Structure to design on (213 residues):
């Protein structure tokens, strides 16, 4: 490890909020804020290297131990699973998974197998399995709201933040599936090997989050 921990941050929506948290913890994040084409950034005043990655890759890097820590949404944790410690709810990136249908449609009022479109087939499968309901799941890569509009599916399981996307497309949430927020995850071997350094980092995160309450 050469005395430095490595953390993978989810690019995009969670990135700025992760950086804001680290700055509040006293970490100088200037290199991450001006990344250019570099993919790994050394923080100048803390023994931490930051890697920016897509959400599922954050989990892959942490699971394989090439990154000791990761910041990733609970949505990706639920969908991809894996073997790592989920040590902190970071409190930002809050949204929820919901089952949504066309406004006014009677989703439960038929015996035929319902078709559900989702970018999250595993979350969808687990939700309906818990209900004991047999559904056909269709994996969609983006703008899943299109599926019921085009007649491909009876409903969708998707992330809802403000609800605007559903509203503007004539859809409504009918049931919550799970709550989502950003999580700090840790590689299981790193936790043993670099316990002192990792616990000190988690402690600083926790202290800063507590000061926000
Ligand atoms: C997510 C989600 C919805 C939208 C919900 O998509 O899939 O489409 O955000 O947000 P709202 O409730 O505030 O309208 P995202 O923007 O991540 O894009 P994607 O469809 O490419 O995944």
């Amino acid at each position: 490890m050469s005395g430095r921990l490595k953390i993978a941050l989810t690019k995009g929506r969670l990135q700025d909020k992760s950086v804001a948290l680290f700055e509040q913890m006293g970490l100088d994040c200037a290199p991450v804020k001006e990344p250019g084409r570099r993919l790994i950034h050394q923080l100048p005043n803390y023994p931490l290297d930051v890697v920016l990655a897509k959400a599922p890759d954050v989990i892959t890097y942490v699971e394989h131990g090439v990154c000791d820590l990761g910041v990733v949404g609970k949505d990706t944790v639920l969908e991809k699973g894996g073997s790592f410690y989920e040590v902190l709810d970071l409190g930002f990136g809050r949204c929820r998974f919901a089952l949504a249908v066309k406004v006014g449609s009677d989703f439960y009022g038929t015996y035929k197998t319902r078709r559900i479109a989702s970018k999250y087939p595993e979350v969808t499968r687990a939700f309906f399995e818990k209900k004991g309901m047999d559904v056909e799941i269709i994996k969609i890569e983006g703008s899943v709201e299109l599926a019921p509009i085009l007649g491909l599916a009876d409903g969708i399981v998707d992330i809802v933040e403000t609800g605007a996307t559903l509203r503007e497309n004539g859809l409504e949430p009918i049931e919550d599936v799970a709550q989502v927020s950003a999580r700090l995850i840790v590689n299981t071997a790193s936790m043993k090997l670099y316990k002192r350094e990792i616990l000190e980092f988690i402690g600083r995160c926790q202290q800063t989050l507590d000061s926000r309450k």
